[in-house]
């Protein structure tokens, strides 16, 4: 069993579904990503076991994060990226997650974009 993400023309994930493993080829099928792609869309395999650039079972991480609807696919990084939560946050290309410009303090804090700092919740 493998998971696949359907991408629109902007490389935004619009659907995620379970399909056949890449090596479980049927007659006439050489690539499930191509086979599953509806006209005008792209399909990319995604790993249920990958999050934040880490494979939960200790294996090789695959495409940064398990895809979910609303994420985008970055072909240069070959990774699924969550939506940027705030304009000031930057993408960590090792964990494929967004990071605030300053580390989050211990405790119950929320990001205040206007002040560019963490505020007590």
Structural overview:
The chain is built from one helix and eleven strands. It is mainly beta and 121 residues long. 4% of the residues lie in helices and 35% in strands. The longest helix is centred in the N-terminal third of the chain and has 5 residues, at 32-36. The model has no long low-confidence stretch (mean pLDDT 96). It has two domains: 1-83, no CATH class; 84-121, no CATH class.
What is the 3D form? elongated
The average pLDDT value, as a whole number, equals 96
**Spatial order of the strands forming the largest sheet:** 2-1-3
- Structural class by helix and strand composition: mainly beta
Count of runs of 4 or more consecutive helical residues: 1
Order of helices and strands: EEHEEEEEEEEE
Largest sheet: 3 strands, antiparallel
- What's the count of strands? 11
| Proportion of residues in β-strands | 25-35%
State the low-pLDDT regions, or none. Answer: none
Distance between the termini: 42 Å
Using the CA coordinates, give the radius of gyration: 17 Å
Helix content: under 10%
Q: How many domains, as an integer?
A: 2
